[in-house]
Amino acid sequence: MIVAADHPARGVLGVGEEGMAMADRGELLERLCRALSRPGVDGVLGSADVLDDLLLLGALEGKVVIGSLNRGGLAGASFELDDRFTGHRPQDLARLRFDAGKLLLRIGYDDPGSGSVRTLEAAARSVDAMAALRLPVFVEPFVMRRDPGSGTPRADLSADAVIRSVAVASGLGGTSAYTWLKLPVTDDPDGMARVMEASSLPTVLLGGDIKDGDQDATFEKWRAALRLPTVQGLVVGRSLLYPADGDVEQAVDTAVGLL
Fold first, then answer.
1. Residue 256 · residue 250 · CB < 8 Å
2. How many CB atoms lie within 10 A of CB 143?
3. CB 259 within 8 A of CB 234
4. What angle do CA 212, 154, 148 make, to 5 degrees?
């Protein structure tokens, strides 16, 4: 069970209808410390600034720490799919004695530029570098489709699209020995069984923003997916740190209870 807090470094500050919910760093850190204090929470995923703050607060003692590698594809930017590696470098994670790294891999088949290709290449080299250091790397792949009206890239969470993203992510780099997958639950939860048949790599489920504020339905989707072979746990951020009822401890405890 890992709590995620790497969203702000990509300009993602909203939770549900609150567009700037994560903008107050003091409040974010306070919520993170509350979440990390709960039994069964193993660690945190974050950008360098967030992890530095948590380290100074003493909140990382005895915890698994995962650093984010790429945050360059800012949310809403014209270059969003050119997600350059502007966060932790593999050597930074080794120097800090952190436990693993994470990279976001958005694949835009209709990307008018070459941002997705550059991201793919950079991701592959990061997988190689992490393997050379014997550090696990969590790859979070999405097939992106541009909204016909606004042109905004949106993640395609159909089973076929997630399967395709898994196939691409699994083949990055010169070895998959240290690669984990970090995957969303498909729009149709029944499709997750097909998704998990697409790779033999160990997998964690990501949280994302809760649709329509229905946290109970999201928990049930996670519960079903966690029963699948190779699914090893949860990496969840906004939906646990900023639950609709404000009760961080209850949301975290419920998620831990699913494992």
1. no
2. 22
3. yes
4. 110
Is-above-0.90 flag for pTM?
Answer: yes
* Residues 229-244: tens digit of each pLDDT: 999 999 999 999 999 9
Contact 103, 146 (CB under 8 A): no
| Contact partners, residue 149, CB within 8 Å, separation at least 6 | none
If one counts every other C-beta atom within 10 angstroms of the C-beta of residue 100, the result is 19
Angle at 77 between CA 140 and CA 17, to 5 degrees: 75
User: How many C-beta atoms surround the C-beta of residue 34 within 10 A?
Assistant: 17
Please give the pLDDT value at position 214. 79
State the amino acid at position 131 in one-letter form.
A
Residue pair 84/123 in contact (Cβ under 8 Å)? The answer is no
**DSSP label at 209?**
P
pLDDT at 215: 85
Q: DSSP 3-state assignment of 18? A: strand
Instruction: Kindly state the tokens that stand for 107.
Output: 């694949």
Closest CA to 8 of 49, 41, 44: 49
Sequence-separated (6 or more) residues with CB below 8 Å from residue 166: 141, 181, 183, 195, 198, 199
pLDDT tops 90 at residue 195:
yes
Q: Which of 213, 225, 222, 224 is nearest to 256 (CA)?
A: 222
Q: How does DSSP classify residue 195?
A: H
Asked whether the predicted pLDDT for residue 212 surpasses 90, the reply is no
Helix axes 25-36, 48-56, angle to 10 degrees: 70
